[in-house]
Amino acid sequence: MAPISGDAVSPSNTRVGWIGTGVMGQSMCAHLLNSGFTLTVFNRTISKAQPLIDRGAHLAQSPFAVASQSDVVFSIVGYPSDVRSVLLDPNSGALAGLRPGGVLVDMTTSEPSLAVEIASAAAAKGCASIDAPVSGGDRGAKNGTLAIFAGGDESQVRRLNPLFSLMGKVNYMGSPGRGQFAKLANQITIASTMVGLVEGMVYAYKAGLDVGLYLNAISTGAAGSKSLDLYGGRIMSRDFEPGFFVNHFVKDLGICLKECQNMGLALPGLALAQQLYVSLKAHGEGNLGTQALILALERLNNVSLRPSLTSTT
After folding, report:
1. Is 119 exposed, middle or buried (0-12, 13-18, 19+ CB in 10 A)?
2. In this model, does residue 270 exceed pLDDT 60?
3. How does pLDDT run across 92-144, given as a tens digit for each residue?
4. DSSP codes of every residue in 237-270
5. Does some domain include residue 6?
6. 48, 142, 169, 183: which one is catalytic?
7. Catalytic residue list contains 281
8. Is 103 a domain residue?
């Protein structure tokens, strides 16, 4: 199959590869398997790919090997350095193993300039590349309701919609790198929203309110948000399991600040949020979920919301 042109993408004519089967990738791959797509996966820690292998996915030993058996290769890994390694390494990377006509789809939140570089390298080989980072966390991945921000050739994004639609809603943002810019703007919005959420909770607690009742009360008003819906209850139950890692959020916000510097842009809310998340990392909490921001605010104010839990359960 040559996905750059020809028949619509379907399980009968498109072999899918996947690099990175962590918190997000695991669920996204499951949707593809459930829809009948042939799937070849690679993950540095094989145990994280095992549930997918048990469900019929094929295991490859390198990104190169994934691509050599696939028409469309998705990646969702940790950092821009990981993206560069799994996609562009001349010996083990996916692009080196991809046949002309194949497509790379990087769903990692990464640097816009790297997305442009990958697209140029893919085009030089007669392939295509889409940057398609996602928002929605672990629940969005499980429910197939992710927001997908796509940059690259628009006709290519349309052709891949049968795959994207299994994971969520694809939004075409423009030329290569624009998907990444959209995701970074998304992260800026989330960062300040999370600061507002946890500050409101600490204020309500200090004022003597039942924090659970307070969250319920504001959820249907103007202060309601996706962050509140996703994380309010988790914070109240001290559930800091990662739907999205603090470490990865620090990486994302760092990329945002670097791009702000390039643009000559001052975003003080972003800078504050990044410092608070860096403080979590400094306390050894980088592998917790982003809702652990409450811990930073509790430390700053020498309070703990724990005692208020008894009145909300």
Report:
1. buried
2. yes
3. 999 999 999 999 999 999 999 999 999 999 999 999 999 999 999 889 999 99
4. TT----SSBHHHHHHHHHHHHHHHHHHT---HHH
5. no
6. 183
7. no
8. yes
